[in-house]
Amino acid sequence: MMPRQVFVVKVPASxxxxxxxxxxxxxxxxLYLELEAFRSDQWEVELLSPSLMDFPxxxxxxxxxxxxxxxxxxxxxxxxxxMTVKSEIPLARGLGSSAAAIVAGVELANEFCGLQLSxxxxxxxxxxxxxxxxxxxxxxxxxxxVGSQIGTEVDLTVLDQIQFDPILVVxxxxxxxxxxxxxxxxxxxFSRSVQASAVANQLLASLMVQNWKLAGKMMxxxxxxxxxxxxxxxxxxxxxxxxxxxxxxxxxxxGAGPSILCLTEPGNGDQVAEKMKQCINGMExxxxxxxxxxxxxxxxxxGFAL
Length: 306
Prior knowledge:
Elements: E1 6-16, E2 25-39, E3 44-47, H1 62-73, E4 81-87, H2 97-112, H3 119-130, H4 133-141, E5 144-150, E6 153-158, E7 165-170, H5 177-182, H6 190-208, H7 212-220, H8 226-229, H9 236-246, E8 250-253, E9 260-264, H10 269-279, E10 284-287, E11 296-300
Parallel strand pairs: 3-4
Antiparallel strand pairs: 1-2, 1-11, 2-4, 2-5, 5-6, 7-9, 7-10, 8-9
Helix pairs in contact: 1-2, 2-3, 2-4, 3-4, 6-7
């Protein structure tokens, strides 16, 4: 009997915005969604992580739905798959779990329908599903990314010269993105948007030249979303104060929240995380690194639970 060829996908988590870079700036993190799949007679999804147990175990699973819809976009029929899925990415915590699932689904369609999608095509499809290119780009390409969308055209730049150590403060509470988007204003006054744009530009510039103090100042000066979303994250100010006292140079909501992203100078993550664990209670402190690779795909002859 011939060994079965199993398709493997590994997608990193991401943290968007970094304060003022709303719906544009994101960083890939070393927490992963992993799946393994092969052709089968019917759809079957085995869920290996406790956080995933409430999700569908057939083609109604969101990853499968993305794969089916992506195949349909190219007038292809997606074959049924047997899959195993595990994830380290906390759900509904502002860590790009939905973007990671979308990336995985697009990769499934690309592999099993022979779409031969370019990186740019993958980015456009994932952004269409996700609604904005920040988490999508970080999970696809890794690193610190800046994304933009003009009409249907999506552009992305990976800033591989930016370095910092990321620490996440993850609360037990969930916060759905649609709820945190509801608190945002429909319109922003022109003068306010000019200032907000300048703050985002200054954040990128300060990170690139390693002016940590200025970067932290800009992360706190966001006008686009944090002033409104902080109402839904009542512990934000307390965590920010303790993180800064522990040695972080900048603090911001991770995506839509409620997780909080704290940045330290390269090499200081371990020390700062330990200090934060001593003064921040009831939340998980995750000392992470930037994932510089993005989505990985490969083939192997057997799976971890197939």
